[in-house]
TrEMBL record, chains A, B:
Keywords: Amino-acid biosynthesis, ATP-binding, Diaminopimelate biosynthesis, Kinase, Lysine biosynthesis, Nucleotide-binding, Transferase. It catalyses: L-aspartate + ATP = 4-phospho-L-aspartate + ADP. This is Aspartokinase. It comes from Ruminococcus difficilis. Pfam families: AA_kinase, ACT_9. One of its GO terms (cellular component) is cytosol. One of its GO terms (biological process) is homoserine biosynthetic process. Transmembrane segments: none annotated. Coiled coil: none annotated.
Length: 402, 402
């Protein structure tokens, strides 16, 4: 007998029929002799309905009240799923975040899980109940309802799996697993059977929005085996776990695209010590995260510094550096939002030479110009024009997988 | 400085505009130097939306899960009202039933309030916050979310007023107060300035659905002054309080109609001791509440017994008595659902003779036949044909108030 945590996102419980479908998956797992804890998100677009209600009344409402409002969404889902499970003849107990023992920081709308006390979950399991937990929410030490921010339900599921030493944590979604590229764009993209935590982290960061990063980090920390799979097909998904020898035989595990970025270039910066530090400290003061950084080789006592930021922070970055220009005498600041970052990720990269060369060759063959390059142990990223993004993904994918 | 509890029903917070209207009333009260605790119900027909969601999935879901589902409705309302109050520049704190200290029995969907611990409410008031509490809900000793059943938000408001020794508990609704008759049916019905708890209890029981009975009983027990008033007009409403001399000058305070009843008649019952007891014990075993009872004067060793029950229990009552007929030898059981109970209520009745005569005269003038009569210290009820109900109310009202 195993303890399995299953997480279902909003689309999986969007209407009565889908809720019944989830109840079927859950009870099938239970009927095989497993203990089951289910984590669900709010139904379909219900969170948007609630946000619309807020916007009509007060777009600048306090974050505490935003959390109070949004947490109602999962409350509805867990009750409906419990009812659907009862309908199939099983005992079910729904628990809100605070009832399930989720203690969080008090950073409303983006709280961090501090501790999960699963005693109520365990007590319900001991009474042979299937337990349904509201994802995305918890309670601060002040007794206020909090939410975990984007992808919070994934994190809730992994946190329960960690606290209860679950044997498996299944993340049900609307795709069949993790693919070597976006299957909507690259027809011959393949589903991976396995992927390591590190590769998954790189892919998540790079815009393959299958799993939330915080949840993968937590799974890695507590060594929880994840499975990403579809709630609609009954096919096995992709297992995310510690790197194995078998994985290293594959050169790369995926090609990812991120178009939500912008490039900022500051030209004619004086080539003196500390000049880059001063630039990036101004950005971090404004909470602007910088990704790829490129610095030109200086000549005539001047150099150019380029970096990428999230697209929606592009203008903020330019504004934050206006005084810098005046203070330190740069020539100009350029903002380019029409760029895309294409990355390949693979645990095998470390031990195989020529991966970068193969990627650049693919881009050259497709006549795509590279603006910036960045590498890590298991990742190579290039910055190109946004218009070339899909073509680039396909070209690289074909090069490695055909 | 006073402590005022204000309760707003679902229609008062049905949309963004109405929520802002309620926020205006609340903040006006606060700005006059009062501490304010607000109790709200779920928005408009949102409870129906949730019930529909349940019905699609499992009409026979457990009551625990029904409570979990329904409690989400008030959670949305309190957050939205808090946001609206913030929008007007005031500090607001919304609290769920359990956060506001509502400890209830574990009778899901119809829980009783056992205790209110208002320490969190008081702490928020001390921080100069307007506190918004989710009505209708609490927490059982097992830590499960409960709901209080019909009219539960009124009871929530009075319970807070009692626990905090509030100076006034205002129940905002869609009518301007308590009227001498239904103003939609009787154009010259008058709004009462004051009414006693006992009269209000009789009127509530009799179908003038302004205030929930449990809330009036609790207000009487803890001597909480209630005001029933409209959230749309700014007119003073009706004060419900201990009986005063002034009230007794008025002969009657209202005429009420109840068409949700049925009459059951059992004819030819043997006229021997214990025969009525045996009849009504069978009904109480089935949880059927009997209201008016009429027993004919026996002759030839036989008598007839008639009684009224809620319309939706009429057939149950007949079924419960089928064996009784066989066991004790009655002639037949008749069920009449086409009846109405018309009642007059008045604290002055006790000290004024001729009230009943005046009522019967009004019905005689209108040529309305009386089937049954029932009286208490401050109430006289008659059973008539349902078709005559509105005519009867008008005739009696005209007789007493014109």
């Amino acid at each position: 007998m195993s303890l399995i945590v299953q997480k279902f996102g909003g689309t999986s419980v969007a209407n009565a029929e889908r809720v019944m479908n989830v109840a079927k998956i859950v009870t099938d797992t239970f009927a095989k002799g497993n203990d089951v804890v289910v984590v669900v998100s709010a139904q379909g677009d219900f969170t948007d309905v609630l946000v619309d209600k807020q916007m009509e009344i007060n777009p600048r409402a306090s974050k505490r009240e935003q959390d109070m409002l949004l947490a109602a969404g999962e409350q509805i889902s867990i009750a409906l799923l419990a009812m659907a499970i009862e309908k199939l003849g099983y005992h079910a107990t729904s628990l809100l975040g605070w009832q399930a023992g989720f203690q969080t920081s008090s950073a409303h709308t983006n709280a961090r899980i501090k501790r999960v006390d699963p005693s109520r979950i365990r007590a319900a399991i001991d009474r042979h109940n299937i337990v349904i937990v509201a994802g995305f929410q918890g309670l601060s030490r002040f007794g206020d309802v909090t939410t975990l921010g984007r992808g919070g339900s994934d994190t809730s599921a992994v946190a329960i799996a960690a606290a209860m030493h679950a044997d498996l944590c299944q993340i049900y979604t609307d795709v069949e697993g993790v693919f070597t590229a976006d299957p909507r764009k690259v027809p011959n993209a393949r589903k991976l059977d396995e992927i390591s935590y590190d590769e998954m982290l790189e892919l998540a960061t790079l815009g393959a929005q299958v799993l939330n990063n915080r949840s993968v980090e937590m799974a890695k920390k507590y060594n929880i085996e994840l499975e990403v799979l579809s709630s609609l097909t009954h096919a096995p998904g992709t297992i995310v776990k510690e790197r194995t020898k078998a994985m290293e035989k594959m050169l790369i595990s995926g090609v990812a695209k991120d178009t939500e970025i912008a490039r900022v270039s500051v030209t004619g910066v004086p080539n003196i010590p500390g000049i880059a530090f001063k630039m990036f400290s101004r950005l971090s003061k404004k909470d602007i995260n910088v990704d790829i950084i490129l610095q030109s080789i200086g000549h005539d006592g001047k150099k150019d510094i380029s970096f990428t930021v999230a697209k929606n922070r592009g203008q903020d970055a330019v504004d934050a550096l206006k005084d810098y220009m005046t203070d330190h005498g740069a020539d100009e600041i350029l903002l380019d939002t029409n760029v895309a970052k294409i990355s390949i990720v693979g645990a095998g990269m470390e031990s195989h030479a020529g991966v970068a060369t193969k990627m650049f060759e693919a881009l050259y063959d497709a006549q795509i110009n590279i603006h910036m390059i960045s590498t890590s142990e298991i990742k190579i990223s290039v910055l190109i024009n946004a218009d070339d993004a899909d073509k680039a993904v396909k070209a690289i994918h074909d090069k490695f997988f055909d």
